[in-house]
Amino acid sequence: MLQLLHIENIAVIEEADITFDRGFNALTGETGAGKSIVIDAMGAVLGQRTSRDLIRTGAAKAFVSAVFTDVPPMAELSACGLEAEEGELLLQREIFADGKNACRVGGRPVTVAQLRRIGQQLLNIHGQHDGQLLLDEERHLGYLDSYGHVEEEQGAYAACYEAMEATRKKMRSLEMDEAEKARRLDSLQFQIGELERAELKPGEEEALLQRRDILRNSEKFMSAVQGALYCLNGGDEGGAGAVGLLGEAERSIASVRGLGEQFAQLAGRLEGLRSESYDVAETLRDLAGDLEFSPGELDELESRADQLYRLKKKYGETEEDMIAYLDKCRGELDEIAFASDTLARLEKTLAKERAQAMKAAKALSGKRKAAAKDLEARIQDELRQLDMPKVRFSIQFAEKEPDAAGIDEVRFLMSANVGEELRPINRVASGGELARIMLALKNVLAEEETIGTLVFDEVDTGVSGRAAQKVAEKLAQVSRRKQVLCVTHLPQLAAMADTHFSVEKGERKGRTFTSVESLDLERRKGELARLTGGEKPTAAMLAGAEELIASAAAYKEKL
Q: Cα–Cα distance between 55 and 59 in angstroms, integer?
């Protein structure tokens, strides 16, 4: 559950600490006082999209933190290398004026996307306009799938559908007119010819460039090699080099090596130095031979390097890439040349894949239809509890050509009055009916989820009187299973709450600010009276508020 929400510099809220409790928490206040800003702050700390316009005027950044308790093990946490210590988890988010964000979970930095995935498992916000989402029939299938837990069937179908689409893509690439086929054949034959004539070899360019660099600097290299050889072997005039001098030193010491171990060791060391210097001289002599080249060799290397450069720009970054592209072109050439045979083979493959996809789609559809019957009954029961006993709710199926979602077209139907036929929700539902149907749907879906906190932002839109009381009772029922946070303007809902917060706007030092305070019993009566009759409650209004609280308490005792 959400235990503590800390807000800094969010819109008109300079700073606020809100300590929520278990059960039903209500937030009330005048329109424009900042109730929805509290909801926006919750959304921000859960990783939802925000705007820098949310930052309070004059502030460099906004900050929100939330402490959740009773957090179960979550795969999303494990994926980030995190865990809830003793079931407690701290979420934090800073929003800077330049649009940057800094997010942390348990004190460790995370991305906004990671914060969002974690937040989605902790708290669900039902916005004041969510009821309008029911008007979009494209969303209905998603609601049904969420309830039906069809992930396994969806995965099996998706694999079949992707295979079928891959085969279709291959067939479309082969289904070209004769003029296009001729153009493609010419292009492939040219590319294949150019690459085959190049006789590419893996690693050739690297060796070529090394040799080119040597030849470009051959004079410098040759001078260094010859200088070293002169020092080791001596000049043509007969001067002694290092090899000869070391040999003389070795022979001189060797003549007295029998006079002591020390002389024997020195003779051995001199022998090693002479042998090593001789080997170095031989290596230098071989290198000098390698540095000799014909006048045209450098031009040939430059020409080959230029050829490889031009080919790389067209066919790949390395010789391996270009060879792979050549193989690909050869394969495509064969496919086009034998397109008729290939198409016939692919048609057989497609028929098999379509049969497999349809089998998987029907299995998915069957799972959805079974879930739909159960969901209809659950929604119908919820609507009866929300003072809509005459409303009929149904889920209609129609079959379509297979696409990524399957073969089902799904839409929600309702009949608002006895004797009227079922019609699409977007044609017959009023604002209040939409709000209650969405509430019913959210409640049913929430029962299937592990989310511990449900937030309802003005779920009472278009609802009043007896219907408002039923909505209040429903939220009270839900709050016995999950923590409920509700922004409301209705006294029936506020009276039913276990914890009541007042959101008030004022002025201080020429600035608007919003405060959030938990209400004791007396202040709660005054707030309920205000919700009922206005700013100046009468004794009768206060008595009515007290009666509302007592009635709500009596109802909750029965739960």
A: 7
